[in-house]
Amino acid sequence: MLKITKFGGSSVANSAQFKKVKDIVLSDPSRRYVVVSAPGRRNSSDSKITDLLYLLDAHRQYHVDASNVFKLIKQRFMDIKNELGLKQPIEKELDAMYTNLNQMTQDEIVSRGEYFCAKLMAEYLGYAFVDAKDVIRFHLDKTINWEVTTQKLNAKCAQYEHFVFPGFYGTNSSGQIQVFSRGGGDITGSILAKCLEADEYENWTDVSGFLMADPRIVENPEQIKYITYTELRELSYMGASVLHEEAIFPVKEKNIPIHILNTNRPQDFGTYIQETKTKNHFPITGIAGKKDFVSIYIYKKHMSNEVGFIRRALSILESYNVSIEHIPSGIDSFSIVVEKKEVENSLYEILARFKAELKPDDLSIQDDLALISTVGQNMSDKPGTSGRLFSALGKENINIRMIAQSSSEINITVGVKKKDFERTIKAIYSAFVNEE
Questions:
Q1: Residues of the binding site for substrate
Q2: Could you tell me which InterPro entries the record lists for this protein (predicted)?
């Protein structure tokens, strides 16, 4: 049994969290390879180390004195070192980093949070430290060079029975450090799990897995114990976030389960993400939504006889680099739903081009739309699911402005007015969970 075990920023925020990590790792011999993020916030008024490193780089770029920012960063790491009685001479490396700041790239600077955290964690656990820059390789297009990365990683595993590995970065084809997008530590853990063909990828954070709805909207929502990769992708896209969504793809290819767990409550079951469809107690898996969408309605008589009409409309949006969410359609009309931020600077230009090039009989917009997705692989096995959902919204006098259902029948998305966003989520949750 091999588990890749990744700890997020909240799990390594201070020496007390380091102690929890050690208890977790040493309690299971299959946790041989540990990935860590940079230390996160210790409290609500605190700063993440990565944010401070980006600030340090900004000071460097604009030739502003960065000594105070550097002192904050150095003190965070020194506090962890001293409180745990560690001997790792990181203060020398930290001072050298600050001295050579102008010779470093932004990616190298912001990667140091994970680097120093991994060095301290390695000593604290009694494990080897393996630097991500010596293992993870990127192609020129910033994609992972899987062949080289796998080869180098297996060599490190042959050398060390246990090691700690910094998340968030690797090395590009020019030999320079390159980082992932924010939250990239999740991706690093996923890469290790895939390359080593692990039995499980544990992702330890500060929540006990996924909830069926946003707890800020629904009081004490049920926990999701099992979820498929596809369901997670649907919910993540609509705003549910515990895991960086790019972390899904490497392990999905190998069908390696991801187990989301809580460092502060290791006894909790958490959430398993796996490809195998699992029978949950409820007919739905979860509900998620986002506000601030715009719907552009286009009507033209005999549109269905006009070849390429919708394509021409989409080409106009493509020329403005606008990403499209949904296209509900009728015989002679259709709507194009996009995020408001995608068109906030170009909406009226787009409408003008629609009028000039498509010559519609009616063209209108609705700019106060919210989308809510109800997701669940078990919905396809339950006749009347859609009717149950629409009935629940009807009872609450919520007007549905748009309906979209995926061909796989695991997702029903409704568009409602922004003011009805929270009421819609509560109504759907009550219909499928409280009434079960």
A1: 50, 114
A2: AceGlu_kinase-like_sf, ACT-like_dom_sf, ACT_Aspartokinase, ACT_dom, Asp/Glu/Uridylate_kinase, Asp_kin_monofn, Asp_kinase, Aspartate_kinase_CS
Architecture of domain 286-434: 2-Layer Sandwich (3.30)
SS3 8: coil
At 335, which helix (H) or strand (E)?
Answer: strand 333-339
pLDDT digits (tens, 9 = 90+) for 329-378: 889 999 999 999 999 999 999 999 999 999 999 999 999 999 999 999 87
Bridge partners (DSSP) of residue 416 are 370
Q: How far apart are CA 26 and CA 23, in angstroms?
A: 6
Phi, psi of 268 (to 5 degrees): -70, 150
Helix (H) or strand (E) holding 286: strand 286-299
Q: For residues 190 and 201, is the Cβ–Cβ distance under 8 A?
A: yes
Give how far the C-alpha of residue 331 lies from the chain's centroid of Cα atoms, to the nearest Å.
38
3-state secondary structure of 198: coil
Task: List, by residue range, all CATH 3.40.1160.10 domains of the chain.
Answer: 3-206
* Per-residue confidence band for 379, with pLDDT thresholds at 50, 70 and 90: confident
Residues above pLDDT 70, as percent of the chain: 97
Asked whether residue 10 carries a pLDDT value surpassing 90, the answer given is yes
- What is the DSSP secondary-structure string of 415-430? EEEGGGHHHHHHHHHI
Binding residues for ATP: 6-9, 205-206, 216
pLDDT (tens digit per residue) in 22-34: 999 999 999 999 9
- For the CA atoms of 270, 187, 243, 269, the dihedral, rounded to the nearest 10 degrees, stands at 0
Residue positions forming the annotated binding site? 6-9, 50, 114, 205-206, 216
- The contacts of residue 257 (CB under 8 Å, 6+ apart) are 200, 201, 251, 272, 273, 274
Give the E-state strand segments of 137-279 in sequence order.
163-166, 169-171, 177-179, 200-205, 210-211, 223-224, 226-227, 258-262, 271-273
Measured between its terminal Cα atoms, the distance across the chain in Å is 37
Q: Where does CATH 3.30.2130.10 sit in the chain?
A: 286-434
* Tokens encoding 187: 């991706």
SS3 category, 61: helix
Give the per-residue SS3 of 13-47: CCHHHHHHHHHHHHCCCCEEEEEECCCCCCCCCCC
CATH class belonging to 3-206: alpha beta
